[in-house]
Design brief:
Elements lengths: L3 E5 L2 E7 L8 H9 L9 E6 L6 E7 L4 E2 L3 H13 L7 E6 L2 E10 L2 E7 L23 E4 L5 E4 L3
Parallel strand pairs: 2-3, 4-6
Antiparallel strand pairs: 1-2, 3-4, 4-5, 6-7, 7-8, 9-10
Length: about 160
């Protein structure tokens, strides 16, 4: 299997082109490949797929096999991959994700992507997954007091 390992701001993912949909169990594959002792080692697996609704489709699987909707660092590397590997020559692309279609603007220097800007959309406030005090569904500027007496204001997205 051909793959590429890339990282963006500390998130490292394994990228695999799967235009023929040959990967039948990406969750299991992600667990096996992501293992840092017996695999390649990564935060997860990102599949590069065809899309009927956008230029490409991205499916992302965490190292535990769970599928995630999106990752900002992961999708920026995705854009670099598809451009640098000649899958597109466009400097603006749309990528279908579990979190909707994301628009990316690629900055190209010497025929390689040097940076990517992505519109992540409005943040989704998550009370259900991260139990906190505050109005239902709204964890905005909540006080978090650490044992050493330091306070932070946090917002959960």
């Amino acid at each position: 299997m051909k793959f590429t390992k890339m990282h963006g701001a500390g998130n490292d993912y394994i990228y695999v082109e799967d235009f023929k949909n040959k990967i039948t169990n990406p969750s299991k594959l992600s667990v096996e490949m992501s293992n840092r002792n017996f695999g390649i080692g990564s935060d997860g697996l990102i599949l590069i797929l065809k899309s009927k609704n956008a230029d490409f489709m991205m499916r992302m699987f965490n190292s535990d096999g769970s599928e995630s909707a999106m990752c900002g660092n992961g999708i920026r590397c995705f854009a670099k991959y598809v451009f640098d590997h000649g899958l597109t020559d466009k400097e603006e692309i749309d990528v279908e994700t579990g979190g909707g279609i994301k628009h990316l603007v690629l900055k190209v220097k010497d025929k390689k992507v040097s940076s990517v800007k992505v519109d992540m959309g409005e943040p989704i406030l998550m009370r259900e997954m991260i139990p906190m005090l505050g109005e239902p569904g709204m964890v905005i500027n909540e006080n978090l007091r650490l044992p050493d007496g330091i306070n932070f204001e946090i917002t959960s997205v």
